[in-house]
Structure prediction request, 541 residues.
Amino acid sequence: MNFIEEIIEKDLANGKNGSKVHTRFPPEPNGYLHIGHAKSICLNFGLAKKYNGLCNLRFDDTNPVKEDVEYVDSIKEDIQWLGFQWAEEHYASDYFDQLYLWAEQMIQEGLAYVDDQTQEEISAGRGVPTKPGVESPYRNRTPEENLDLFRRMKAGEFPDGSRVLRAKIGMSSPNMHMRDPIMYRILHTDHHRTGNKWCIYPMYDYAHGQSDSIEGITHSICTLEFEIHRPLYDWFCEALKIHHPQQIEFARLNLNYTIMSKRKLMKLVQEKHVMGWDDPRMPTICGLRRRGYTPQSVRNFAETVGIAKRDNIIDVSLLEFCAREDLNKVATRTMAVLDPVKLIIDNYPDNQEEMLTAINNPENPEAGTRNVPFSKELWIERADFREVADKKFYRLTVGGEVRLKYAYIIKCTHVDKDADGNIVAIHATYDPETRSGLAASNRKVKATIHWLSTAHAKKAEVRLFERLFNVPDPDDCEEGQTFLDHLNPHSLTIQDGWIEESLTLENAEKHYQFERIGYFCIDRDSTPNKLVFNKTVGLKQ
Ligand code: ATP
Ligand code: MG
Prediction:
């Protein structure tokens, strides 16, 4: 049980909130969700599920400048893909009227005032944590004057930045967020939902807790950087005498070799360092999806990482491990040869071909079998052959034997080379008695390799990925550098490979294991004539 569950179970035992659990996931629709958000989604929706409660989706759309419907749609798609369904869908902007009325109420009670100082003057007045700040010269306006000015702010009489509404708390708290924080600013900007209705917009701190309160949220879970905002969250709820959810902070997910700020991810997209938000190298949820991650593997990852109270950095290989573990269970096996060299079986009859039985998924008998054509000329991986090999190399060598998976044991006799000494074909003989499934097939050889019949294989494009950044912490920069200087120039390799002919777009499965190579999925750039595969992750670390 993690510390948040401990808090919740105590609350349930004490009958707090009518013994109900209601959480929310509150993204700002200013970008696509990333693996860090996935963690927060799994946590919030997971707690609701565990305690028979509800979890809302609330778009925290209080900043009209950066927000867009494109992001709203993508966020919903990503949450559902992860396997979660929200109880209610809300927008902080739906609460603008209520928030405004509460602001008037606070003005009337002497708890808020209109400040005409510039942003710079306000910052300067706040001072430093170790010394009290100075009060604004406008701090002691009467409620009537404040109300009049605030209404005129709302009516659009004043330009951007000319006035703000501030909470009247005090100027001496060591917590700078408590020194008369700004509640509203003037922004003559259309909002993606409220259009031009408003030209004043609430600040995050004034909107968030109240939105939670309106929705009857019981446990408002957020990341550690909001810990210092909690006194203000509490202050607004107390000042307004409204339902008071409990804010609980946990450590955000940090992954090495990755960046997770939406602003920086946006830069990668806008400057075309990647193919888009869903580039398979991106840590976005849509990127992971396109890469071939399963929702289960992402949920398992979130679960494995756990909930911490202190910031830490998770190794990206844990994410890869979780992908492998789940894909092993669900991926359909197929044979593919990515770096081909020809293998000719000299004693196999010309023009003969036979269908051999291959197993679709040894982890799942229900997945059944399929037929794979075998013939005299095959593709095998160049790396599975060595002309001269040391003792540790168990695969094919001149004079040595291997089993061709689902087929026969073969023995290499010699190789053909071109004028430059490159191997153009490997020659072998096969033993008909050793066909998989026959009585004599038990003869043991040290290695089994995969293959494809050259006459039957078809070409596909294969995209191989490495880490997008070549250092563990891309944000750790020397002077004059940015995270972009740590981009790995070799993060994408595009090549052609051979795949089984029976694999088509119409009968495509979601996930494949190219036997002995790794996990792959079909990319959306595929056409019926040419499939495109993304490598999700290799078989081993
Ligand atoms: P970014 O810094 O990438 O822009 P954000 O925190 O501004 O992210 P929001 O849309 O405000 O993004 O986040 C929605 C929710 O997801 C918040 O509750 C936030 O705390 C949580 N969240 C964001 N990043 C992470 C992370 N790396 N790990 C865990 N939770 C996160
Ligand atoms: Mg945020």
Remarks:
- The two ends are 30 Å apart (CA to CA).
